[in-house]
Amino acid sequence: MYVSPDVRADLGFVTRTDIHRTDVNVRFAPRPKLLGLRRLDFLLYGQVITNRGGTVQDWTVSPNINPEWGSGDRIFAWYSVGSTRLEEGFKLSDSVPVPAGQYRTWSVNWFATSSARRPVVLRFEGMLQGMFGGTVHSLATELTGAPSANLAIGLRVNRNLVHLPGGSFTADLGTLRLTVAPSTRLVANALIQYNAFKRDVSGNFRVAYTFRPGSDLFLVFNERRGEGDRLWAPRERAGLIKLTYLSRL
Fold it and tell me: Could you count the other beta carbons within 10 Å of the beta carbon of residue 147?
């Protein structure tokens, strides 16, 4: 993939310009008849990013393993090592300065989930990373349940631990999801998040009604609270009504 240094993205955004990116993937997926395995994936992934002058900006090599059982349970784990170059410094989460420079990177990652066919699904995620001269770790667990075809509820807790030469912080995020579907035409969703790092609570509520195929009515309400030590102080509030009507001629 090539992105010109003079690229314009009037209808979107480009995270980085002046790059040549090359990706290589090698995959081997046997189906061993043991331990109830349905498939065992081995993947070796590599990537090199250079600029127009041929200077290497980023490179990474990552071996992966992904066993999948006939029950639908999965474990996905991978390790990566590489390097990244920052042409400009920035502030991580607007608080910890990261200066420009060349950095070695490494990461150990895993993702484990029980089968989505079960009424209760449990997921674990982890990402231990070495970058920017320090470490940026992320750990998460999620529990979702669907007691019936009309109701689903999920709770997710995520912890981020940052230790860099410019500073350290811990950021916790809790998320609650609720879906109620009285019928195939009417669905209500609620998403509530608590950000301990920013000390705020946000909520998104949506009701979608399909009164005919291709024609829908959406009611959306968003609210965000939290300012300084006042967790419930109102900050933002918005409502939206959207109507789509499909006419076939």
Answer: 10
Residue 57: name the closest of 94, 8, 100 by CA. 100
Q: How many CB atoms lie within 10 A of CB 22?
A: 12
Element (H, E) at 145: strand 134-148
pLDDT digits (tens, 9 = 90+) for 181-228: 999 899 999 999 999 988 899 999 999 999 888 899 999 999 999 887
The SS3 call for residue 199 is: coil
What is residue 94's three-state secondary structure?
A: coil
**Distance (Å, whole) CA 239 – CA 219:** 8
Which of 82, 81, 76 lies closest to 42 in space, CA to CA? Answer: 76
Tokens of 12: 């979107």
Question: CA 193, 107, 21, 55: dihedral to nearest 10 degrees?
Answer: 120
Q: How far, CA to CA in Å, does 246 sit from each of 174, 208, 214?
A: 39, 16, 6
Single pTM value for the model: 0.80
Nearest to residue 89, comparing CAs of 76, 80, 81, 98?
Answer: 98
